[in-house]
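Worked problem 6 (solution included).
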Amino acid sequence: MPESRITTPVKTAVSIRNVSFAYPDGQVALLDVSLTIGRGEKVALVGPNGAGKSTLLLHLNGILRGHGRVEVLGQPVQDGRLGSVRAQVGFVFQNPDDQLFSPTVFEDVAFGPLYMGLPREEIQERVRRALEQVGMEAFEDRMPHHLSLGERKRVAIATVLAMDPEILALDEPSLGLDPRARRGLISLLREFSQTMVVATHDMHLVRDLLPRTVILDQGRVAAEGPTQDILADRELLEQHGLELP
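Solution. The predicted structure is:
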């Protein structure tokens, strides 16, 4: 029987309970992490390199699975549920070239809906709508590797929007962008209503976009709270290798 999407309303988008994870070489990336994210929240994951930010994001749709429990919209991230969970969590990789592999922008954005087995007309509508949402509607026939980095990042976001997810998980979305492209990206993301979890070193993006901040360090939650309070604590930021925006 095919997996179904969530039909009953839940207030919690993501529930992470006592999650620990170590890579095959023995490196411990997460250590007893617990975190709850409400539906519609926009949350920053910040911390030094190696803090576990990307590793935690990859647990949201089961790309990585450690010890502990992760639930997405009330569904456990486990075998037998991964298809429906991944339909709900749109993961945008740090490098858009890890996400774009088709000859044209249209084919890249259509890949997910096509894999879902949707009718051709709905696939075309989803592609049109997703590209319109990221301001790339005139680029359907372009080759992704001929686009600028900022344009490729927008197309990568469109590939997950076409799946109609309830949660967006973004890994370093502003990395490598010039100031103009970065401002455009923030303006774009501000318009989205989905729950958003963003792993980033960009404290300007955190300040301008994400009302709640979680600091990870050495695989643990070191602090969390309203972004304005976290950013007002200079000593806390310095302690975890973070700079004021």
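Discussion: Residues 1-8 have pLDDT under 50 and may be disordered.
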